[in-house]
Amino acid sequence: MEQPAAIRIHDLVKRYAPAGQGEGKLALKGVSFDVPQGEIFGLLGPNGAGKSTLINILAGLVMKTSGTAEIWGFDIDKDPRNAKRAIGIVPQEIVFDPFFTPVEVLDIQAGLYGVPKAARRSLELLGQVHLSDKANAYSRTLSGGMKRRLLIAKALVHQPPVIVLDEPTAGVDVELRRQLWELVSDLNAQGVTVVLTTHYLEEAEELCDRIAIINHGELIANKPTRELVEMAREKVVVVTVDKPAAECPAHPAIIKCEKTGDHTLEITYDKDRSNAGEVLSLVQAMGFGIVDVSTREADLEDVFVTLTSSAAQAA
Ligand SMILES: Nc1ncnc2c1ncn2[C@@H]1O[C@H](COP(=O)(O)OP(=O)(O)OP(=O)(O)O)[C@@H](O)[C@H]1O
């Protein structure tokens, strides 16, 4: 039998329509996608694209206008209890009472989910997020990074098969970001399906098996990360030549050529139609000697910019 998706969203529409203020804001315009079980799935999009709206619908915090959503096979309308039990949400903002200790925060959350005392794993969870030694400290004394890890533990108290992290590393320093990435990878290795939203393309490229991009409430890409990165057909070669570079070589595969210094040309070419060797031969054929060369592959950022700007042009 085919495995159900961890999350299945079909034709999801959300219109925020404040009373008496006309048509309101169409934040999701019929979004459909599946999050396969066992993956780390990245949801990317510029500010205001609709990511939080989508997550809040899954969390039961925002009412959708139309469409369907299932979590671990449970429809959020027909079976909201089971749908809710199948998902753990790690919000962007840090929300817990500063006067409770981490172990109390987790015990209370377990109580809210009806986890019987004997089945509570608060200390084990604190170990998982490397907070064992802070189990009995006041939450307000934790560092920002520790608080974020506690939020992740809190989302796991009912052992959901799916966890959603909304901008888990927004505003945190590089080292802490790495720690959080490791934690997310460990959870995934233990079988938890992870959905995360992020502004950091590097984060998505590093962590995610698959990436969906939403822009102005519409899904504009949903592909394995590798395929998405491969969509970047452009490659750049930066050539330093032995005399002032006055002109650029001409070739159908050359997309762009810029003089970036007296002796430097930055040549962008289509890697499906040419290669660095051919580009360099063209430069030599113009009478230049080559002093230095470096190349750069397009990355997810280039793809993201291309996709979101072409979607903006089409709109
Ligand atoms: N409660 C609300 N009432 C009216 N409009 C809203 C409400 N919440 C969000 N919106 C609008 O819906 C659109 C999508 O917002 P949303 O917060 O889902 O985007 P986002 O992709 O999560 O952005 P960000 O990365 O900034 O959090 C935006 O234009 C936003 O202004």
TrEMBL record:
Coiled coil segments of this chain: none
Q: Which residues form the ABC transporter domain?
A: 7-241
Tell me the Pfam families matching this sequence: ABC_tran (PF00005)
Q: Which UniProt keywords apply?
A: ATP-binding, Nucleotide-binding, Transport
Cite the InterPro entries for this sequence: AAA+_ATPase, ABC_transporter-like_ATP-bd, ABC_transporter-like_CS, ABC_transporter_ATP-binding, P-loop_NTPase
Q: Which molecular function term from Gene Ontology is one that the record holds?
A: ATP hydrolysis activity
Q: Which SMART domains does the entry mention? A: AAA (SM00382)
Top-level taxon of the source organism = Bacteria
Q: What is this protein called?
A: ABC transporter ATP-binding protein
